[in-house]
Amino acid sequence: MDLFLLISLLSLSFLLLVIHHVRALCHSKNLPPGPRGLPIFGNLFDIGSKPHESLAKLAQLYGPLMTIKLGSVTSVVVSSPEMARQVLQKHDEAFSGRVVPNSITELEHSSHAVAWLPIGEEWRLIRRVLTSYLTNSKTLDLLRGIRHDVVQEMVCHLKDVCTKGESVGINKIAFTTIMNMMSRTCFSVNVDEYELGNEKGFRNAVTTIMKITAKFNIADYFPCVRCVDPQRARQKAKAAYGCLEQLCDYFIHQRLNQRSSGISRRGDILDSLLDFSQENQSDFNLKHIQVLLVELFLAGTETSAITTEWALAELISHPHIMLKLRDEISEMVRKRGTIEETEILRLPYLQAVVKETMRLHLAVPFLVPHKTEEDVNISGYVVPKDTQVLVNAWAIARDSDTWDKPTCFIPERFLKSGMDFKGQTFSFLPFGSGRRMCPGMPLAHRVVSLMIVSLVHYFEWKLPNESTEPEGLDMTESFSLTLQKAKPLVAVPTARP
Ligand code: HEM
Q1: Using one digit for the tens of pLDDT, what is the confidence trace for 339-384?
Q2: Which SUPFAM superfamilies match (predicted)?
Q3: Is 4 domain-assigned?
Q4: Averaged over 269-286, what is the pLDDT?
Q5: Quick check: is 12 in a domain?
Q6: What residue numbers bound the domain in which 274 lies?
Q7: Shortest CA distance to 427 belongs to which of 62, 89, 83?
Q8: Closest atom of ligand 1 to CA, residue 303
Q9: Residue whose CA lies nearest to ligand 1 atom number 37
Q10: Binding residue per annotation — 186?
Q11: How far is the CA of 269 from the centre of ligand 1 (A)?
Q12: Residue 67 and residue 32: Cα distance in Å, rounded?
């Protein structure tokens, strides 16, 4: 009986797959050009382990608006600044949908998270909440003391490391620091430590979710197998999200208890969200608070930590750039007597280093995949409703038509140009553009700038293996949800006088 059921299910899946394939072929007349794929699998085998690179190569053959078939899912890949402008500015609304990964479709998280909500009242409200209580410049100024304190804890820890002459993993240090900046801002406590393994804590919960959601899930490409969830991806995601949700719930309920026993407010983001929720119960309840907190930890920690790690790797392998940057920072400290976040945002060479790092090492190489909300006429083609849209921001940022020596790390290129990452320069989109643009950009900009300044000003950095020339540092990328350094940067700090 079981075998009969299995065979029936497989036959039915196969039949649905063929019907879907034939229907897709019939509707594909006006689609942008693209490589021919295999029957059933489409171009799945063309993309390999570094899709940002392989799709950039294919785009050179098929053009900046290219159709690929991933299993039975039709996707359109955008690979030039002009096409990005069309998609993210001219047709912004039509391209503003999201493809929710199958692993999280059953979670309440996906129904309330900014990143997955369709554009609508709820999405607008939560983005407004995020801006009002966290990412507007007045609030960010008010909260800068927290970021300074947490960075000082990192500096103390690294000075300790210096006395022992040990090496450190930069990603781990950056991750812990940025995680604590986020938790101090949200809950007024540190949730991570430099020394501990932290197997049950926030760091572990965040990295587990990142790993699970980054894994290739066949159900994303073959809708007909979704009902069986062949890799148990939904089950694994449920457990992983459950851990992070529980950790956030603990702080929410602790705060509610403190409030009812008259303990004074902390004045952090959690207090603001609870106040807002009390006034707007029907639109923004405790579940919204939990989902938003989870989202802040997921969206805001790894991305900023990776960017910091890439920046230091580039600075170590370009000693003259490191020196020039250090001179600029020393000059500021000499004048002001201290490192001030508002001041460092005005340091031209530092800002050029931040931008050049974000250009060369896109933390989110395809943005978060978009989806068409209707049929769209674009450049003489028709992109049908519900098509997945991948904006290859990595390829765009290395396009030789726009960038001179695109694969070289040259911060000076940003000194001359007024180019910025605020979504108006379509050749440079580390945070995206348009209505789906990253709402955390102003915070990430400050955090990454402060991290780089502190690592460069307080310490000299050497590679642990004396025989490795800094210029020979392995800069290979590893593609996951984010674009990481394949070989994590390990370096030896020496405290500067
Ligand atoms: C260096 C750090 C960061 C980078 C490179 C980055 C990049 C991005 C990118 C490329 C997107 C997708 C844009 C699109 O689809 O068009 C995005 C979305 C998002 N980011 Fe960030 N981000 C960073 C930090 C942060 C921080 C600190 C937060 C939280 C405060 C945050 C919250 C979000 C959210 C909620 C979305 C979804 C927005 C929506 O769909 O409406 N990000 N980010």
Answers
A1: 999 999 999 999 999 999 999 999 999 999 999 999 999 999 999 9
A2: Cytochrome P450 (SSF48264)
A3: no
A4: 95
A5: no
A6: 31-495
A7: 83
A8: 2
A9: 115
A10: no
A11: 18
A12: 6
